[in-house]
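ok so heres the complex, two chains, lmk if somethin looks off
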Amino acid sequence: MEIRDCMKRKVISIPATATVRQAAALIVEHRIGLLPVVDKQGKLGGVIRLGDLLALELPDFFNLLPDLDFVHDFGAVETARPSPEELDRPVTTLMQPVTFVEESCGLLRAYALMEKHNLYDLPVVSDADALVGIASRVDIAAAILSDWITATPSKI
Amino acid sequence: MIAQIATALIFLVSLWLIFSEKLNRTIAGLCGAVLMVGLGKLLHFYDETQAVAAVDFNTLGLLSGMMILVALLEPTGFFQFLAVWAGRFSRGRPVRLLILLGTVTTIVSMFLDNVTTVVLIAPVTILICEILGVNPMPYLMAEALLSDTGGVSTLVGDPPNVLIASAAGFSFNDFLTHALPIVIVAWLSALWLLRFLFRRELAVRPPNADVVLKLNPRESLDDPKTARRVLIVLGGTILLFFLEEPLDLSPALVALGAAAVGLVWVRPNINDVLRRIEWSVLVFFAALFVMVGGLEASGVLGGLVTLLEKLYAIPPMLFGLVLLWFSAGLSAFVDNVPITIALIPVLQGLESHGVNVQPLWWALAFGAGFGGNGTIIGSTANIVVASISERTRTPITSKLWNKRGLPVMLVTCTVASVLYLLLYPLFTR
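and the predicted structre for the whole thing:
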């Protein structure tokens, strides 16, 4: 089985000209964790991860301290919000390089890539580099596991 | 004559590379040291045996022993514990928080490496400030400035002091009787000045001050058992430093002995401990010693001393004062370790000509120590605090340091100068 057999074909993506605020709105609307950024031709330029957006609100100490278990109340940080300037800047300023695969990619290779890169969603592109689908970890794992059930009959 | 010009050139080029940061200081030092010995062998004025003899192993032993103790204490979370405790005890009041964090950082860095202290306390400072909703900048700057100032008070508090003590034969107690009283006054003046300079930031009362009471210092201490053991060893070390003279122990022996006891008691993964040691600092020190040894062997320092002797016609008190401000001015812009290492043989040379250099050693200690406060690059603690703050939303800039740090340097140096003149007879013995 190839990734094209289990991927979602309806991909929620955002144009490179959009703002951070619009990216946040799309993520809220569709409840997704990864937002591919595409250019005018529909080519994949990068991705916005949920974490990249939330990093705007996370406090500075989050990156400086190895352990936060002793902090029982985040106090003023809990109500801090990103500034309007931060939300109105282009989405490309937060964009991350993307790991993607072609439609013909095998399922186990796709899963292994996600494990190695610690990804939860994997964009899929056509031969012409256009974004054509997206598969989550669960999509891929379920496709692999379903194969176990049909291809390896039980002996009991 | 060729030897003198060539060695002076090697030393000056190495210093220029170090100060201009064109080359990492340890690499520059190592190259300079190797060139010095190579040239010495070629022109028959300096060889390997003399180079090894030029290295002050008392300094290196003391530094590495204390580095091992810090390496044992660092992963226990003890430094974080102190900062969290200070935050909680401040009850979220800005001035109280500044005084507590500054005091804790100072006391710890009087005995342990102040760079490690600042590296570990600064992130917790940022945490406390963020949950209180205040700007961490005044607190971070106060930690660097006050710990640098406080470090001048003890033999182990500041690398130049270790060098001076070893060269001049000063004991741990000599620092407590000569440097500590002056440092206390200078430190209090620095604190008062910081309170004034940051009066606007410190006037903001956090609305949710109680949030710091929910911090749990005990939970920030990862390994209380090891922390307790290392602190007991550290306590014993300080006690032996006090008794250094009656027991006829060198500080290096005390520090390395403490490191050995600590290692046996804690039994850590030795590779982890050794990885935490700042080898680059130790190699840099050794390389500078070898270079200065070459300058001495070629006769450059002797010539310089003869030159300085003429200057010594000016009153000794004034000479001390000039040295204090001269070393302070240099330390504000460049590393105070090479300055101290370069000035030590000069002072020793003056001593061999019958000059009483005791007051000059102290002037050098105050100047090299307090001078580092002047600029953002003046001391390693300043550089470290600035680079940590660069990872936050409120970075400390060089311009800001000139506005708030430079006055601290000027005030501490002025206080030291006034007290130096008033207490001059104390420093002559």
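quick notes: The interface with chain A takes residues 77, 80, 84, 122-124, 126-127, 130-133, 206, 208, 211-212, 214-220, 222, 388, 391-393 of chain B (CB under 8 Å). thats all i got rn
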